Amino acid sequence: MVGFLEKWRRRRILKRKLIATASWKSIIARLPFLQKLNTSELQRLREWATIFLHDKKIHGVQDLVMTETMQVLIAVQACLPILYLDPSYYDDWIEIIVYPGQFILQRTYRDEAGVVHSGQIVAAGEAWSAGPIILSWEDIAHAHYAAGYNVVIHECAHKLDMLNGSANGYPPLHRSMKPHIWAEIFSQAYATFCEQVEQGIAIGINPYAATHPAEFFAVFSEVFFMQPQLLTQHFPKVYAQLALYYRQDPAARCIL
Questions:
Q1: Which residues, at least 6 apart from 17, have a Cβ–Cβ distance to it below 8 Å?
Q2: How far apart are CA 232 and CA 206, in angstroms?
Q3: CB 181: neighbour CB atoms within 10 A?
Q4: Which GO terms describe its cellular component (predicted)?
Q5: How far is 66 from 225, CA to CA, in rounded Å?
């Protein structure tokens, strides 16, 4: 529950700094997946994004200048997953770092034989536990939303996953949800998807989801919001669990 002081603080922010109407309409027109939201949902999203922009610091690096429109574009997409949750779900981090394009990450991992390897990978996004989110502006500005791709939602899903520790595909669930059902459905779906990827069966979902349960949750969260009907077709039980978790039903919006 949000306390009295927090409600008061939010009212002050919204009164003073609500995202300007012209900027808001421009962003909504640019993001087709938001146009299915009803008037009440759009108003709440505008308020949550306003609070997000007040509470977070969004910095460009490598000479990237973050305009107001760019920041609003990020905030709106970041707040879609918490539309029916609360901005407090993002309280344990305050910064977003934005590169002009994809960036290089140094990775260290231990293989099945116990041998430690290190190397570099090119990434479009990264979420650090209790730290910043790092994003590629090129991947935000030129995202193929119709293909279910959304790097902002992906990294925010990791942040939600990390609320109870390391990202592992098992975020803290609501009291009304059954952890053993979530674990069973996601474990079976992950195994099925990994097998499909191994066999070269393409169903329109990014095969990167097969690299780790945390990535499975993040990628499937992208698809949940971007291409919900694809998820209801191939993984209806996963869709149902995500609908319970996010307290949204994007597939129902698509048929209105």
A1: 50, 53, 54
A2: 16
A3: 14
A4: cytosol
A5: 25
Taking only the tens place, the pLDDT of each residue in 86-132 is 999 999 999 999 999 988 877 665 555 666 656 677 888 999 988 99
> Tokens 């609360």 label which residue?
86
Does 254 score more than 90 pLDDT?
A: no
pTM (global) more than 0.90: yes
Contacts of residue 133, defined as CB under 8 A and 6 or more positions apart, other chains included, come to 93, 95, 96, 97, 125, 126, 127, 155, 156, 159
Provide the CATH number for the domain formed by 1-144 in this structure: 1.10.472.150
We find that the CATH architecture of domain 168-256 is 3-Layer(aba) Sandwich (3.40)
Please check whether residue 218 is in contact with residue 158, taking contact to mean a CB–CB distance below 8 angstroms: yes
φ/ψ of residue 229, rounded to 5: -70, -25
Name the token pair of 126.
């990264």
